[in-house]
Amino acid sequence: MAVLLAASMLSVPATPAMAQDDAAVAAMRDEIARLRAQVAALEERLDLMAAEGSKTGSTPPSAPLSASLTTSQPAPERVASASGSAQPPALAVPAASPPAPAPASGFTLKPRGRLQFDGNIVSRPAGMTEPTLGWSTDVRRAFLGVEGNFGGGLGYRFEMDFASGDPLFTDLWLTYKKGSWTVTLGHDRMTTLEDLTSDLQTSFLERSGFIQAFGFERRLGLSAAYKDSDVVLSAGIYSDDLETLGSGVADNSYSLDTRWVYMPKLGKVQLHLGGSLHHRELNDLADSLRYRARPGARTTSARFVDTGSFSASAETGYGIEFAALRGPFHVAAESYWQNVDRPNLADPTFFGIYGEIGYVFAGGEARGYRAGSFSSIKPTKGIDKGGAGAWQVNLRYDWLDLNDAGVRGGEQAIAGLSLIWVPLEHVKFMANYLHVDVRDTPILSDGRDDYDADVFGLRAQYDF
């Protein structure tokens, strides 16, 4: 082994300077002799380590030391001394191997959050004095939380919204996953396509009128869901939202909810067909049922349609969902009926529907879709890589009818256009224009129950 080392070092091609300098050659021979002695000493130490390892069960290094000394490091260049004669390189010592990583415990923790700033101009119908009409701004959402896994199929999410100044719970749950099944316990929701699409990925600043009016929200409950490549089936039992439960109001209401989705991929078309069913027993909340909706802008507290509070014992809602995506195009439509049980009175059924079409016209491939809801638009080349990000345009018509069986809340139709820019992943800017047409409403404008308004909205958002 020492002979091989000496031969490899002597085989280095001689340079003209070396040939002319006998002193340098003599120095090299002395250095080789010194290296031979060092290698012999090290081999003796390895033999002793091997003998001790056979007694203790440890395994000595199998590769020859000379190989590690000559191949584990790139060959260093020769350096000249102050006298000008070439000096042999210093002996390269192999680096120690890094320690083996500790086995994973299964616990993971990932921070998550989002920040949305909104600004809206809502034109003021004649005679209305609501101060938040006109120009208004708001921190729409300021979420901060964590999510991850405990191991063994158990997962968690803890998230709060700080936008109002007082922290409010949003997602707060534990999950258990086994194969295609997921059981969720906590503050969660089971609603419809658009409501289950994250507010980070909606086509307009606000969701459709019936989602606002019929009180779709997270509630404390227990649910189970089955998901495979083409089907989502879910069912759960819920009480009320945590804010209401913590307000001190007597609240023994509960609801039963279920949703099912069929989502086959037909060639290049992603299809979505779904339905949902909701039944809620109001119990002690029987005298406080109310349905109302803002005109597509959350920064105003004005509502042009509002049933006011009325008595009811229960509500039953049922909806149908449709969507299709192909390349940069998507279409979506939902309708929802909310039937109300009123003791000794006629039972009204309120109704909402929307339809939209969207097109990613630059910088992105398509609107995302995953497991029964829409997901993000990812730019193919963001501004951080010299591109222009992704751009999308959307058209929508939204109708809400809160008049039936003696309950008068009004009718609201909204035609909207939105433009979305995603300059890079996790950053998004939105602008939408809405024309709002109100009819037969108890919220009057100069004594009239039919009028219109215009809304222009902007949003900037970031998430992680």
Automatic annotation (TrEMBL):
Q: Where is the composition biased (Low complexity)?
A: 58-72, 85-95
Record has Signal as a keyword: yes
Coiled coil as a keyword? yes
> Which residue windows are coiled coil?
18-52
Query: What ranges does the record give for the region Disordered, renumbered to this chain?
Result: 52-111
UniProt keyword terms in alphabetical order: Coiled coil, Signal
- Signal peptide region: 1-19
Q: Know the name of this protein?
A: Phosphate-selective porin OprO/OprP
